[in-house]
Batch of 2 targets.
Target 1
Amino acid sequence: MSTDDRVVFVREFLRDPFTVAAVTPSGEPLADVVTAPVPRTGTPVVVELGPGTGAFTNAIQRRLAGRGHHLAIEINGRLAGLLAARYPRVDVAVADARSLREVLAQRGHRSADVIVSGLPWAAFAPTQQDDLLSAVTDTLAPDGVFTTFAYTHTRWAPPARRFRRSLASGFEEVVPGRTVWGNLPPAFVYFCRRPHTAVQRRTV
């Protein structure tokens, strides 16, 4: 992570703390873990939510090596412009992640094989969390993988615990990984598989 990226991230946080919601981008050790499910073969559709300055984008691009379709959805127009200039092979959409289905459909896709999230879930209101997770479960392929991260020091806070329950209602399998101590602050990754349908979510 470069000093320039830190400066950009802090500047955008000060401009709009409710959509950026983090003061510093994630580090490379966390990026390597959260993008591990991106396959190194085939032509997968990989969606990245809330890429920011590209901490996870770079890791996804390395794993894809020119294959597949990498769609990054960023609500902040300035960050999206920076990302598009830095990674010309990435399809950057300036949009709310809750409109994921529509953004995918505009590109001729019904689902994604992998969805990687850099969104600050604990900073969202419960209804916003639910809408975002519904967008993910409704568009992830049945055999796909959704990954997102949480900070270790907030793991037992009420918003984080609620988010964990929401993941359990949205997916058949939710596996938390080990703490990535090399990230600042330390974080861990949720690996979520086999998304539930809307009907299943109402009965979980």
Note: The beta strands are 45-49, 69-74, 91-94, 112-117, 140-151, 171-176, 187-195.
Target 2
Amino acid sequence: MTVTLVFLAVMMALFGGWLFSHSINVRPWEAQGASTQRSQLPPAMTAPRVGLAVFLAVATLTISAYLMRQEMGHDWRPLAVPGLLWWNSACLVLGSVALQSAWQAARRDNAVRLRRGLLVGGGFTIAFILGQALAWWQLQARGIYLAANPANAFFFLLTALHVLHLLGGLFAWSRSLFRLQRGATPREMLPSVELCALYWHFLLLVWGILFVLLLTT
């Protein structure tokens, strides 16, 4: 378990560094006439980086709790991971790729490609969430319930938390899409689209780690 925790810590640190390097100039909520107090904040303390760092810490702690609980007793009975999760994972990968494309389109001032990237990214994300709901229903139909043993409880907890984070991301995504439909230019959309893309990449990494853990433990 120690080796696994070290691996997770390294992965999170590498991804955190990548996020920092790619969002160094992002200030989505910076407005003209910002208060003196805000201007005194360190340059690194932007809202996107702080929020993503918090999610990073929560994900690391939750995964660590999963691994530690697994080692605690004989009552841990791993469940068979539904095959549907492979399809769901593919949807999440495609959604992240689409939002990366939207981010690039915003930087190149390409409104058509930006709209297409946002729509495709959101569509695949919604498909992932629906697929997760179907996987939960399949488990329930097989008599695999949350309270049956700790492994079941952690499966439902971890996947539900991940879906909740995606739903929060879809709220920000819908606001960006609404602004674009109202006539905002790609340049004006760049900060919010960049934040969405980084958030989706982060959640894709978290899901990849969770999926590997569920398959191997």
Note: The first helix runs from residue 2 to 22.
